[in-house]
Amino acid sequence: MTADRRAAARTPSTAETAARRMLDLLAADAPAQEFAAQLARSRAGGTTPADVEWIEETTEVALSVRRALDQHRRRETELVALFDTAGDLAGLRDLDAVLRAIVRRARTLLGSDVAYLTLNDPVAHDTFMRVTEGSVSAAFQQLRLGMGEGLGGLVAQTARPYASTDYRTDRRYRHTGTIDDGVAEEGLRGILGVPLRLGEEIIGVLFAADRTPREFTPDAIALLGSLADHAAVAIDSARRLEETRTALARLEAANATARAHSEALHQASDAHDRLSKLVLRGAGTDEVAAEIAALLGGGVAVHDTDGTELARVGTEPVTPSTVSLDAAHSEGRAVHAHGVWTCAVLAGAEPLGSIVLTGRADLSEADRRLFERAALVTAMLLLIRRSVAETEDRVRGELLDDLLAGPSSSAHWDGRSLTLRARRLGVDLTRPHAVAVLDSESALRPRLAAEAARVVRGPGGLAGTRHGRSVLLVPCDRPGALARELAADLARVVGAPVTVGAAGPGTGPEHLAALHAEALRCLSALHALDRTGDGADIADLGFIGVLLGDRADVGAYVERVLGPVLAYDSERGTELVRTLHAYYDQGASLSRAKDALHVHVNTVVQRLDRVAQLLGPDWNTPANALEIHLALRLHHLSLGTTGH
């Protein structure tokens, strides 16, 4: 056998065997204690000191290689985990989901008992707990940390990572009762916090914590910091995405609103055109009201300024309330009350009437605008009607002027021609007519003239203005009642007292000038008697009327004042009238009256009591006594007697 063969066949030395064993352990990724056990066996097996020393050096090298391999594998694992985390975070779109994923991955990567994340509040200038993983304490989950307070507050303030092996005993941080109580309730000891950084801005802090003391290695700090960097970007992306979604939602809502508004405008414009065409082709209020009712799907009623119904479609009679009408006038909008929508019909600030809508519990904004546009069109219709009426009133007023001028005004005055003109305007002068003169405050006279013309138009009368006062010619045989009715109704419409003097009735054009003069005297007497705001004719003024009237009916006056007493004497043969004469002639003295009558005073008293029953308990007041005394004189004059 050659020397080479002998060398190849020799038995390996103890040192060589130990070295090969170390390589096998490295290849098998054996734990560190296996390497120590191999060294111990070599020492116990009678190995020479030189070989033992060599084996010890070999073991140290093997352990160093093993640690390097472990570190590389750990770094590889961490890098893979960070890569997976970045991918997971990139796929998330909801901010809450992003935050939960960050905290969950932090707890997994660092193998900690608890992980949590706080976000900075720029308004409150603190940082608050946002998400936790592994936490069991409600107080801990609701903590807020002021800047610089506790470990987390210090990280948020300084933008640097901080770690504490045992937070309870660590005095490097500013402890507060609230923070310490929350940490103690959660049972945390070792805590690591790293900042969530976006450029120069710190948006929060990411934590990993154990319930036992823990020394966080630089690798752990670096790992949590890397995760925090990924998390900050993901949070920013999620925030921006959420802001974009919110902006898109708002934009979509704005677009929907704009589309709805555009559609409403189109519908309103189309409805306005339809209503305007109706008005322009001469349709009446009935047709316009019917169109409005069809457009809005309800019942419609149109009223004049005094509440007179001009048109009604699809509803029972309904009168707009004063409160609703005032509110609609002042606000310039439709008002809803008690199931009825009310809109004022205005020409500028001047009221022309009202329009009400029934059968619609509510109105969309578009329908409400449509209803208000309908009120504008109604105003246009009423203005056109008023313009036509004013033109007609002007013609009728000119006729009234000619009638009231009378035959004495001109040698060419022709009653027959005036009668024909009146007939063409629907006025029949062969019927009994009364003349009324109206008066009010100077500022209200134009309004009064317009309202008076409107009132008289229905009965087939005439209206005009003479010497600043409204004058009416009305088919009527009771001028006093007409005057009182006009005074009451027109005062309610114009909102101020209206005084009316009337005269008549008269038939034919030749008597109207005299009636007008008598009505003027009656009006002047009402003012002089402090009866402004009242209405009357000459007969209503008592003895004043007798004095003022050109056509005073003495018999009617006596009958009105003494009628019950005259009738009583006639039926029973009594002497009540004679007793009244004696009573007044003797200065209202009972004793002198009984002497003049040659009766007992009790008889005079009994007769006057009967007079009181017939004429009323106030028969002997100064005003009534004057009327009775004058009537007694006229009665005797009419009989042609001078005695009692």
Account of the protein in words:
It is a single chain. The chain is an alpha+beta fold and about 650 residues long. The protein has 22 helices and 16 strands. Helix 5 (about 95-110) packs antiparallel against helix 9 (about 220-280), helix 12 packs antiparallel against helix 13 and helix 18 (about 555-570) crosses helix 22 (about 620-640). The longest helix has about 60 residues, at about 220-280.
Helix count equals 22
Strand arrangement, major sheet: 3-2-1-6-5-4
| Biggest sheet record | 6 strands, antiparallel
How far is the N terminus from the C terminus? 199 Å
In percent, how helical is the residue content?
A: 55-70%
The rounded Rg comes to 57 Å
Tell me the fraction of residues in β-strands, as a range. Answer: 15-25%
Distinctive features:
644 residues; alpha+beta; six-stranded antiparallel beta sheet; five-stranded antiparallel beta sheet; 22 helices; 16 strands; 16% strand; elongated; disordered C terminus
